[in-house]
């Protein structure tokens, strides 16, 4: 599926670029949290009704941890690639290089003047 993207979540070199985006899960993060939390609440209530409270508390804590880990890991692969980040950094470096062109020329002129002065002192 082709998708037009502008800016984040991927670091693109150009402001508008066609990107191939394949997503297994199309739901939002909030929906995942609500579904996971709802299932956890129902299971916890059933466990507390059917089992010993100490055992039920243990099961509730373990399942709550599992729900949180699964919800946080759901978008684990949704990040820019190394190449995309490096391309963005290259653009920033190029812009900075172009921005500092006058400063480099001024420094080069000062250095050449200094070298000429050193050469004159050496000749004397």
TrEMBL record:
Stretches with biased composition (Basic and acidic residues): 94-113
Region (Disordered) location: 94-124
TM annotation in the entry: 33-51, 57-76
Swiss-Prot/TrEMBL keywords: Membrane, Transmembrane, Transmembrane helix
Protein name as it appears in the record: Uncharacterized protein
Organism ancestry: Bacteria, Bacillati, Actinomycetota, Actinomycetes, Geodermatophilales
């Amino acid at each position: 599926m082709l998708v037009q993207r502008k800016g984040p979540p991927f670091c693109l070199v150009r402001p508008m670029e066609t990107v191939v985006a394949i997503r297994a899960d199309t739901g939002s993060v909030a929906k995942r949290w609500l579904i996971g939390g709802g299932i956890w609440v129902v299971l916890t209530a059933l466990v507390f009704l059917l089992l010993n409270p100490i055992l039920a508390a243990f099961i509730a804590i373990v399942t709550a941890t599992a729900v949180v880990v699964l919800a946080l890991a759901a978008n684990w692969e949704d990040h820019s690639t190394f190449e995309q980040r490096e391309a963005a950094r290259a653009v920033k470096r190029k812009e900075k290089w172009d921005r500092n062109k006058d400063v480099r020329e001024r420094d080069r002129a000062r250095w050449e003047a200094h070298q000429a002065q050193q050469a004159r002192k050496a000749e004397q």
